[in-house]
Structure to design on (478 residues):
C-alpha cells in the first residue's frame, strides 16, 4: 500500500484522537505502518499521549523504539525459534489482536522484561484491508511473506495487514475481549477504509500522467473501486448505530432502575432457553430436533445479548425464533406440553422489546428533566442512515445538555461530531467523484477542468491516497 506520508500522519492522528477521546483509561496511542509485501516493514507513523487531566494530546513522542524509521522487516520481528516473541509478529501473521491485560506475565513483551522494563497494559489491533480492494484482479499473484517454517502467511485469508494500532491503558482498566477492545477493533476497520481511500487517490494522480493512453482502461478500474469505497462508507453509520446502542442500553437501565418489576427480553429469552435445555437431554430426541433446538438456543442467546432496535428485534423473533419453535413443537412432541407457556413467552417478548419506548414508563422517570425524557428515547430508538444524518445534530445537543447525567457524555459527543462531519461530506464527494468518472469515460474538452474536479474533492485526507495506490496496480497490470 502506497500512501503519502503527510496525509497518512494526519489520518493516524485523527484515529488516535478518536480512540483516546472515546475510551476511558487510555493514555497513549501509536499506529504502525505495515508493508509492502513481502518485506512487511513495520514503521511507527505517529504516537500521541494524553496530557493527564485534559483532552490535550502531545504528538511525536521522542521515545526510542525499534519501530522508528527505518523500522523492522518481517524477518526481524516474526515468530522464530530462539527469538523473543513480539506482539507485532502475532498481529501481522495471525491478523488477530493482542491484549496485554497482565504485562507482568505477557509472553510477547519478554524482551522488555529481560531489559528490566515492564510493558504497559495495552491492546494491539491489526488494521485489515481486503485483498481484492487493494490489488483487484492481481490479488492472486501477491508475493506473500513466509513464516519461520517457510509457509506463506495470508494465503488463506481475504485480507492483508496495512497497519497496527497500539493503545496503552491505565493499569487494570482493560481485559481481553472487553468493550474497549471491541471499540478499537471496530475503529480499526474505519482506519482500514481511510487508508484504502488515501491510497486510492494517490493512484489516480499517477494514472493521469498517461491519461490519454489508458483512459478507457483506467476508467473501468476507477469506477469499480470508487463505488466499492463509497459502499464501505456505510461503516460511518454502523459505528454511529453501535454507539447509539450503548446509549439505548443506558436509557433502558434507567427504566429498569425506576421500575424493577418489569419483564425484559433477556428474562423471557432466558426462560425459553431453560425450556429448551429441559428437553434436549431426552434419550429419544431425534438428531433433527436436537439440531433445531441448538440453533434456536443460539438465536435466543444472541438476541438476549445484543442491543438492537425494537423493529429489528421483532423481525428477529418473527424470522428466526418463532419458525424454529413451530417446527420444534410440530416435529418433537416433547415440547408440546409447554406450548401454551412458549407461545405466551413469545407474545410477551414483543412487548418487552418496546418497553424503552413506553410513554407511561417514561413518565415515571421523574428524576430526569422532561426535555431529556422526550429526546433521549426518540433518538436512541432511531436507526441512523445517510437520510437521517441531521438527527446526529440532535443527538450531539442532547449529550451537551447541562442536565444530561451520563458517564463519558463528552467523549460520546466528540465521537458523534466526527461522524457527523464525515457523513455530511460523503454525498458531495460521491457526486464529484461520479463527475470525474464521466469525464474519464467520455473524455473532456478541457482536461484541466478534470484536474480541478480532483483538486476540489473536499476530503482529500480520507480519499486521496486510494487513487494513488490503484494507479500503481493499473501500471503493473499493463
Amino acid at each position: 500500500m502506497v500512501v503519502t506520508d503527510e496525509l497518512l500522519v494526519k489520518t493516524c492522528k485523527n484515529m488516535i484522537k478518536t480512540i483516546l477521546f472515546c475510551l476511558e483509561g487510555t493514555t497513549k496511542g501509536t499506529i504502525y505502518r505495515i508493508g509492502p509485501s513481502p518485506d512487511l516493514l513495520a514503521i511507527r507513523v505517529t504516537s500521541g499521549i494524553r496530557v493527564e487531566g485534559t483532552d490535550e494530546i502531545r504528538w511525536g513522542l521522542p521515545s526510542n523504539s525499534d519501530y522508528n524509521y527505518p523500522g523492522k522487516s518481517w524477518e526481524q520481528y516474526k515468530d522464530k525459534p530462539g527469538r523473543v516473541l513480539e506482539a507485532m509478529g502475532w498481529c501481522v501473521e495471525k491478523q488477530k489482536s493482542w491484549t496485554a491485560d497482565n504485562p507482568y506475565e505477557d509472553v510477547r513483551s519478554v524482551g522488555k522484561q529481560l531489559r528490566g522494563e515492564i510493558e504497559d497494559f495495552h491492546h494491539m489491533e491489526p488494521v485489515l484491508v481486503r485483498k481484492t480492494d487493494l490489488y483487484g484482479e492481481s490479488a492472486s499473484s501477491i508475493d506473500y511473506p513466509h513464516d519461520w517454517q517457510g509457509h506463506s502467511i495470508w494465503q488463506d485469508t481475504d485480507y492483508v495487514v496495512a497497519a497496527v494500532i497500539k493503545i496503552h491503558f491505565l493499569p487494570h482498566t482493560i481485559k481481553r475481549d472487553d468493550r474497549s477492545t471491541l471499540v478499537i477493533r471496530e475503529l480499526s476497520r474505519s482506519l482500514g477504509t481511510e487508508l484504502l481511500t488515501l491510497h486510492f487517490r494517490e493512484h489516480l494522480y499517477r494514472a493521469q500522467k498517461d491519461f490519454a493512453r489508458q483512459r478507457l482502461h483506467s476508467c473501468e478500474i476507477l469506477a469499480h473501486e470508487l463505488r466499492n469505497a463509497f459502499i464501505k462508507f456505510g461503516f460511518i453509520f454502523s459505528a454511529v448505530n453501535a454507539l447509539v446502542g450503548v446509549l439505548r442500553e443506558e436509557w433502558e437501565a434507567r427504566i429498569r432502575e425506576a421500575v424493577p418489576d418489569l419483564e425484559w427480553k433477556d428474562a423471557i429469552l432466558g426462560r425459553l432457553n431453560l425450556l429448551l435445555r429441559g428437553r434436549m437431554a431426552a434419550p429419544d430426541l431425534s438428531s433433527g430436533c436436537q439440531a433445531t433446538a441448538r440453533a434456536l438456543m443460539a438465536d435466543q442467546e444472541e438476541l438476549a445479548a445484543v442491543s438492537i432496535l425494537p423493529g429489528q428485534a421483532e423481525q428477529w423473533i418473527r424470522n428466526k425464533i418463532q419458525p424454529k419453535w413451530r417446527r420444534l413443537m410440530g416435529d418433537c412432541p416433547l415440547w408440546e406440553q409447554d406450548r401454551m407457556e412458549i407461545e405466551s413467552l413469545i407474545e410477551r417478548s414483543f412487548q418487552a422489546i418496546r418497553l424503552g419506548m413506553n410513554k407511561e414508563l417514561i413518565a415515571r422517570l421523574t428524576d430526569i428533566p422532561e426535555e431529556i425524557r422526550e429526546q433521549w428515547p426518540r433518538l436512541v430508538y432511531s436507526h441512523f442512515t445517510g437520510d437521517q444524518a441531521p438527527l446526529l445534530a440532535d443527538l450531539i445537543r442532547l449529550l451537551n445538555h447541562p442536565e444530561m447525567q451520563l458517564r463519558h457524555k463528552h467523549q460520546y459527543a466528540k465521537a458523534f461530531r466526527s461522524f457527523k462531519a464525515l457523513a455530511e461530506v460523503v454525498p458531495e464527494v460521491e457526486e464529484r467523484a461520479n463527475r470525474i468518472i464521466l469525464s474519464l469515460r467520455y473524455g473532456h474538452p478541457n482536461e484541466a477542468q478534470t484536474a480541478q474536479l480532483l483538486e476540489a474533492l473536499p476530503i482529500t485526507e480520507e480519499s486521496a491516497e486510494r487513487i494513488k495506490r490503484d494507479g500503481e496496480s493499473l501500471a503493473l497490470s499493463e
The two ends are 18 Å apart (CA to CA). Residues 30 and 47 are 4 Å apart (CA to CA).
